[in-house]
Amino acid sequence: MKKSDFDFELPEALVAQQPLPNRSESRLLKLDKNSGNTSDLNFTDVLEELEAGDLLVFNNTKVIPARMLAKKPTGGKIEVFIERVLNPHQAKALLKSNKPVKLGTLIELGCQPQLMVSGKQGMFYLVETCTEQTLSELMQAHGHMPLPPYITRDANEADDERYQTVYADDQQAGAVAAPTAGLHFDEALLQAIKDKGVNTAFVTLHVGAGTFQPVKTDDIEAHQMHKEWLSVNQAVSELVNQTKTAGHRVIAVGTTAVRCLETASGEDGRTAPFVGDTQIFIYPGYQFKVLDGLITNFHLPESTLVMLVSALAGREHILAAYQHAIDEQYRFFSYGDAMLII
User: Fold this and answer.
1) What CA–CA distance (Å, rounded) separates 76 from 73?
2) Distances 237 to 55, 228, 270, 273, 274 between C-alpha atoms, Å
3) Looking at residues 295-316, what average pLDDT do you find?
4) Where in the cell (predicted)?
């Protein structure tokens, strides 16, 4: 298949630049993955679409303040975007500067050198602290919420809360982009879901900067996926298996939860604990092992994520549903509306 097979025209005005006042006020486009039929709902209507015994799987990663505006000792500006923390004092990062960044360059945060460029790995630099402060401490003091490139404004204090799910786990900090399907859930809706007898489980996948990298090959099979770290524990794997054995549905909240589930599951449909990197690339033709449904936002044209949802519901159904969403003025991308593919 070709990258252009997943293209569509999106009016710029439909790219959501701000979150709605309340998380669960978003709209929800329901797509029947078998027939292609769509229904226009409110996000809270998801409660009526779920059944007792279903399992909702969430990604509990927490977004780190990964973007730091800094300068070199010469005074030149440099932007540091932490992509992955390797240990308390070293990370992979993207560096943006007017001039090429040399190894050994010192980076000033505040009024003194705090980081040093120590290596290069492909498109990423290795940076390490040159003070006693950890990277986490430096990001808390100098970092900003890393809003996606299609949000064309600077991050503000409101984003510190709203570009984070309500169930983000402090112990699972490490993402540089939010698992945005989860942004629609508030505490009241989560409680109503549990009260209905729907089970919930939490996996972790630290969303990396590669999620925004475009597919550069026209033949999508030649595209090399970026690596992302994930964890599916024993309790979650057992709950997934029990749900499937009982004939109930496993529904992922977000494409990152899909990547966790499908990476941790075998061809026999059984899920096992998994901790490590995944490069799974899901596009039409992929046979899902455990997934029955998906709650997700609308995705970029020609992106690996629109390919993933096309694998679940069919490319023609997805493109038709997206055109319907455009015609009905749904809000797109991270702070936008949601889809339920079931």
Assistant:
1) 7
2) 12, 19, 8, 6, 9
3) 98
4) Cytoplasm
Sign of the C-alpha dihedral computed for residues 159, 164, 170 and 173 taken in this order = negative
Contact (Cβ atoms closer than 8 angstroms) between residue 52 and residue 196: yes
Find out whether 149 and 17 touch, Cβ atoms under 8 Å. no
Residue with tokens 């070709």, as numbered in its chain: 2
State pLDDT tens for residues 137-174.
999 999 999 999 999 999 999 999 999 999 999 999 99
Amino acid at site 21: P
Q: What SS3 state is found at 77?
A: strand
Alpha-carbon distance values, 101 to 128, 275, 290 (Å): 15, 34, 45
Contact yes or no for 308/341 (Cβ under 8 A): no
Q: Is the pLDDT of residue 287 over 90?
A: yes
Res 213 pLDDT > 90: no
